[in-house]
Design a protein that fits this description.
The protein is mainly alpha-helical. It has a domain at 26-106. The protein contains three helices and no strands. Helix 2 packs antiparallel against helix 3. The N and C termini lie far apart (80 Å).
Length: 132
Amino acid sequence: MNNKLKLGFIISAMTLMPGLAFAQWRVLSWGDLVDFFYDVIYTLIPIIVSLAVLVFIWGVFRYVVSPNEEDKARGKQVMIWGIVGIFVMVSVWGLVNIIEATLGLDSDRYRGNFPEVPEPESRSGPSSNNLL
């Protein structure tokens, strides 16, 4: 075996060891597996969209700053690919939402899950219970 293959095997083994140690800890159901993929997807989507926006901004920067026409053309192409990437991601996200709504999947669990601000007590003045 060459050194890269050995290193890859060692890294893979080290990555999978915690999973082997907790293999009998809990049996995963189908719902747990779906929840895991939902969590991964809902975590990665904002990161990927942010990267596409950064690619677009990098293209704008290259287009504005570069002095020669060749670099401006490359900047323009980076901007176009950034816009295409953003459009594709937003379109796919829209299709995912349409499919969720059509199949009646429970997606409310992941939307609007923000902490709530407690409501203030009565504004009509202190009550007789709070005087002492």
